[in-house]
Batch of 3 targets.
Target 1
Amino acid sequence: MNSIPTDIRDADAIIRVCSYHRRDFDLVVVRSRPHDMQLVQTSLQAAFGTLPTAKLGIFNHLPVELMFLVLRNLDIRSFFYFRQINRQARVLSTGLYEYQLVSKYGLEGLRGLLRAGLAHCFTIVDLYRPLITDKCLTCGGFGGFLFLFTAERCCFDCLQSSAHYRVLPPSTFAKLIYISLSRLLHLSGPTLQTVPGTYNMMDIPARRPKYLILEENATQMLLAAKAISQDATRNLRIRREQPEQRLMAATAYPCYSLENAKLERGVSCKGCQVRLELLRGDSHRLARDRTFSIQGFLSHFTVCVEAQHIWAESEDGTRPVNEPELTRRCGYFTRLGSDGLPR
């Protein structure tokens, strides 16, 4: 077998030959259709072509640094109301550095919060912080997703398995803890409005409730208000979950490196898929579904025998190799519509 290369040019070839992006993970969470995104990108990322003539009243007497400080502390919904005041407001808000990066690279998160009815809960800075880190807040591994209830970065595995991300319809929650729905909604914090999507790997749209609440947050708020007792939460712990509902509360969210100005969406290992097809077993399936940063994958490559075999077969990236069907398709979905989403 060839020795494991270490220079940058070979590292790029290793990524190209031995890894792939799990496109299906991106498609089973909250997702915008590409043509919808194209319609709004220009207006979000640019000010008007003509110079502003109107002012912003007393706000114009503030130094620019203080203006930006105010904008950083506006919730996202208010931020967009401000952008609509006049041309001066549009120019000023577009010039905010954090907004420039979020509107260019974190548009799925921004649009996801707006569509979910949660934009009033977060600021532009709340979206900027997860954009410039690649760590899942729960496990510390690479996280390619944004959990909309908390605007925190997470990985696909934690999104599916961690109790921190348990969600359910408010009506179901109210029945399980024996509280009226109106009292629950008054005390339990924000609700997420779900949007149409696929939310499973079966190419069949999942049954979608109109609203969801975050179980952990709602339970803590109700206990703090003494609206329920600890005993009342027992039914929540033993209930059977609808796993698709967690996917309705997350969206794909790339990470942007301030050091090298590169965007990463995460890669998975073709070699781990080869091992799964040879050996089967849940442990190999978990390894196959793991997502890495570029540097994380290069470290993984040094210990993945199957990935090294693929690299050797490619003769240092100079010839095509036979690869599993799933990695060639970048996931489970076999057919995508013209809008880039599962048919």
Note: Strands lie at 19-20, 145-147, 152-154, 167-168, 192-193, 211-214, 250-252, 255-256, 263-264, 268-269.
Target 2
Amino acid sequence: MSLMEHANVLPLTAVAWSSNFGSCPKNFTLISITEDGAAANFTRGFAMKSGYYLCFSKDLKGGVVVSDIQIISDKDSIPHGYSYITEYLDPKTTVSKKKRVIVRTSPVASVETAVLDIKLTAKSKMLLQHYTYVGDINGYVLWCRKGPFSTPVPKAKPRSVSLELCGLSLDEPSAPPRLPLQHRNVPATQPQSRLSHRRHTLQVRDFLETSGDSSVQAITALDGVPFSLHPDFDLQANDTALQLNSQLGNIRIKTVKDIENEYNYTFAVEESAAKRIRPSVST
């Protein structure tokens, strides 16, 4: 079998014993017939109501796969990492267990190859192509096939979408029609006593900025901190107001014409120097 055919086969996730189809779990496949047409019941006898069959599962919900399978004697110690296969048997079922089937399970993500299939034959002389001989047990021969495997991609379940979700869109909604501006009665701010003009201006500006957006981003570290001028710079509370007013009264405010007349410069010297004729040297 080619590598492409191997990759399309699901691996074994569990191997177990079962008495019949009734005791076999739903996600397991029971091997009732060997490859050469014989009954695959390991308890041979007359009028046996309960059997002893091998079954396997390929359900990947557990997240593990069967990476190896072996048959050992009941006197041998079980190797590290291996375990006996599970038994789904009727209470009255008895079987000789001189040999035991053991498997090694590994997480799906940690292995690249696993046991893809197992088969039984009743005659030891029969060979199965592409299968590996595992061992003989109770007159049967167990074969396995290993190779790379692929995990099925989970399919997304369709969800019922409500009418409200269907109405949602990532496109920007159309702008609402503009309405004529209406005058709102904004309460007039009354100037408080002993407040500077700067503080009054800041309060009005803060009110205009924060009235439209009251989110946390508009809050600063200075919110709630009172602001006032030092008494030395408050002209209304200081006795030096009259002295400063007298000094300010002596300042003469000059117009543009006064400044041009006071600092007028004709550049006559430079113009006369530029007009001088450079003397020529006679040959």
Note: The chain is about 15% helix and 20% strand.
Target 3
Amino acid sequence: MAIEVEREELSIAAAELSKALPDVVVTDSVVPEAYLWPKEELAHVGHDEYAGDDEIPVIDLGGLNGDLDETRRREICDRIRVALGSWGFFQVVNHGVDLALVERVQAISKKFFELPIETKELIDCTFEEDRLLGYGFSVANKDRTSRRNWSEGLFVDSPHVAGYSSTFWPEDHDIQTEFSEAMEEYIGAVGEFAIRLFRLILSSLGVDYPATESERFLPKEPALIRLNHYPPCPDPSLTTGLVPHYDGNLMTILHQGDVGGLQVMKDDQWHPVRPHPGAFAINGGNMLQAISNNLCKSALHKAVVNKDEDRYSLAYFVQAPNWDQVAPLPELVDAEHPAKYHPFTWKEYFEAVLASQVEKQRFTNELEHFEVK
């Protein structure tokens, strides 16, 4: 019963947090109190201060869709293993997803965010089973009801695409079709890429399996994506676009557009991620850290805002497969490398997330609940 109450409270908070930002951006020249964050949780580097941070790995996947020779494949896998082990994060270019499709989805995303706030709020952000769907953000912070991110977003999956498009543009069938077709095509294309990438990650860890067993490694469906908008802010030093957090899923595939704002934590320092034309940013999630027995890191990351430019991004969340239990893969456990985590279910993990929301301290990670002590 307690979990259900917290779930309801979070849904209400997510809806409330979506309401004020558009009005603030239009009418105010200062950052209101509701958007002010403690100094320790704010950026220490600007959204475009990339000097010295170009060591963030950028991996060329050219040839991934064809026949890679073994040397080239091993080189890619080695780079992925090192990137996930040290950063929990990397970028990929030549990934095989049509860049014209990415541009189409970015364009229709901008059309959505240009809608009146009353229209966008026709579908509030609420929990459905184990995921957020709809318009708004939930803030993972104990002060979530009084502190807000300088951003807005739309969570959507395949079953809801058509319903959302007809709700947002009830009289414009052309835009309905444009939104639905672009989103469905993007979900399909990035989903196929996610499977190829996941197999490369497993290979990088030395986990190879027969094709007949591949079904148990396919990501959970339906895929969940989030369209993000970070408007210009009068004083970016006082607020945040998205609070620091770990993703609970397997990994996230992000197209961050051409305006910087994504930052990743490494060695207790924030590193801004330079946008690369046509690239996807890949960050490992908690489920990947668990099944890899800590060979892969879950990346602590956040989004910051700037004073002059709108920033738009597309986040595709690769959900963990429908395993009965999540646990380190047997191939990665031996006497010298004992299991770092007890077996757990996604439901148990998700309930730990909900239960910790009210008391959550900064930068905590619910995966710690399942560590072998």
Note: The longest helix spans residues 173-204.
